[in-house]
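Methods — Computational structure assignment.
A single polypeptide chain was analysed. Its primary sequence is given first, followed by the predicted tertiary structure written as structure tokens.
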Amino acid sequence: MSFLKRREKNPKVDGETLVILDLDGTLGYSLIPEEEAFRKIFELTCRKLNRNCDLEIGTEKMEQFYKEAKKTHYELHYLKPKRHNKRLRLKIFLDKIQENNGVRFDSGFLDEIYKVYWDYFGAHAKSYPDTCKTLEKLMEKSIVVIATNNEDEEAEIKKKLFGLEAGKHYKYMFTSDRLGVCKPAPEFIEELMGCLEKDLGHSVSNKRVVVVGDDPRVDFAWAKPIGAVTIRVKKDLNASREPSSEEEKPDFTVDNVSDILDIV
């Protein structure tokens, strides 16, 4: 695809700028609520084991089981959509506990903790105060695209929690389900541009590209080969995280979503 040739940053081009935004942590407060929701599950699981199995396990140990489960989950579905499936991760989490402690959870416990996760998350995740207005302004002069590692179902939930509407706040949303790959895989940009050109019905090779994210580990390196301008929104759980390489460093770092209007 000709679009994937490296280009100079900020080229003078005809047509709109293409703005590609991440979802979690970039457009809304969701990563800290996610961590807190898992802690609620750890506490519930501790009580369950104590009550039904007379087994005393603390939340720190539960967190360790979860970290092991997350690692296994990522390895099983390396840079593929299912790596972000919460129900699958929770199943692996329960399996780890059962295998290591010789216990067996009842068949409905996975459903129970899955509900606890989404009840807590849904009550605490929200868009930033300036997100919707900023996206509306971007829509006036740009092609606004949301590109997320979430699967379709989770992206829909978060889209509603953030109050995002197609046609008003963004033109297209691409999930890992549709693209078949997750950031930071190099193939992510190829799949994204291919799907975008298919939906638009024309090439986007003449567009200036701006990529906006919050996590230096996954949100920028994949966009560098096409000369995209990269902007980091320093908020939520990843606010204190620092880039570990030149490829992870964004061109700009801002404190608020609305600040990207001064760059785009």
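Note: Residues 1-8, 10-14 have pLDDT under 50 and may be disordered.
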